[in-house]
Design a protein that fits this description.
The radius of gyration is 18 Å and the shape is globular. By secondary structure, the protein is α/β, with parallel strands linked by helices. The protein folds into two domains: 2-104 and 298-312, ornithine cyclodeaminase, domain 1 (2-Layer Sandwich); 115-296, NAD(P)-binding Rossmann-like Domain (Rossmann fold), CATH 3.40.50. The chain has eleven helices and 14 strands. The longest helix has 20 residues, at 101-120. The protein has helices spanning 6-12, 15-27, 101-120, 135-145, 160-172, 183-189, 230-235, 243-249, 251-258, 271-275, 297-312; strands spanning 2-4, 36-40, 48-57, 61-69, 81-89, 95-100, 127-131, 152-156, 177-179, 192-195, 214-217, 237-240, 267-270, 289-292. InterPro entries: NAD(P)-bd_dom_sf (IPR036291), ODC_Mu_crystall (IPR003462), ODC_N (IPR023401). It is an enzyme of class 4 (lyase).
Amino acid sequence: MRVLDLEATRAALPWADLINAIEAMFAGECVMPLRHHHDVEVPGEANATFLMMPAWVPGRYIGVKVLSVFPDNHLRALPAIFGTYLLSSGKTGEMLMAVEGGELTARRTAATSALAARYLAQPDAEELLVVGAGRLSLNLIQAHASVLPLKRFRIWARRLEAAEKTAAEARALGFAAEAVSDLEAAVRHADIVSCCTLSSEPLVHGEWLKPGAHLDLIGAFKPTMRECDDEAVRRAEIHVDTYEGALHEGGDLVQPLLNGVIIRSDIRSELSELVRGKKPGRTDPSAITLFKSVGAALEDLAGAILAYERTTGKTA
C-alpha cells in the first residue's frame, strides 16, 4: 500500500486536474452513504467534530475519510483539520493507498468552490475576497485563479496579522494579494466573496453584496454556524453542493429555512445538476449567486483516485 504525506498529496493534485476530476465525479454514478458526523467534547474549549465519510464507484474504487476538526487548534499553532483517506479496490477490497486527509480536504474543498464558481460567478470576475486566513485561504486563491481571470486578491481575518501572512504567501506565488481590515468595504467591492471560517455568527451582510457578486460559503458545516446573514440568503440565487448535506448541516441555509426566511423551492440546484446541464447556473449578470457547501464524500474519492492514478500510473 502506498502512503502519501502532505507534500506528496499536494503534488499529486494539481488544480486543473483536480477540478476536472471532481466535476466528472459529480456527473458520474458515485454512491455516497450518509456520513457519520459527531460532536466531541474538548474540556474548556469549543467542541470538536469527528467525521467518517465513505463513498464508492461500483466495481472501481471504494474509499473512506476519517477526519477531525478542532476549532481551537489555532491556540496551539496547529491546523484545525487532521485526517487520513483510505482508498481500496472496488473489485477486491485490497487497500491501495493512504492519503494525507487534511491536505486532500483543503484542496478538494477549494476545488469544489472553484468548480461552482465556473458556473455561478461572472465569467469576467476580477477580484476575489477571501474571508478567513486558515489553511483553506491560500488554496481558494489558487483554485479560483485557475478557472477565472482574477487580477486582485484580498484577505480578511479577525486577526490582521493572519490575513497579512496569507497575503504574503499568495504574493510569493505571483498573486496580487493584500490583507484588508475593513470587511464591509472589501465585500462591497469584491466580485467573489469566499468564506472559510469557523464562525457561529454572520460575518458577511447581504446589503454589502453588489449586483453580480458571487458568495461562496464553506465554513458553516453545522446547523449552529453562520457566515452570512438572512439578507444575503434572501437576496441570492442559491445553489448547494448536495441537497442532503447543505440543507441539513449548513447553518447558513438551515437557520433561514427554519425561520421562514426562505423555502425549500428557493434552492435552485445542487452541483451534480449544474455539471450535468439539468439546471442552469448564472443566467442574469446582475444576480447575486450563493453557493453553500458542507463537503461531499465523492469529492474526496475523486481526489484520492486522481492521486493514486497519477502517482502509480495504474487505473482500476
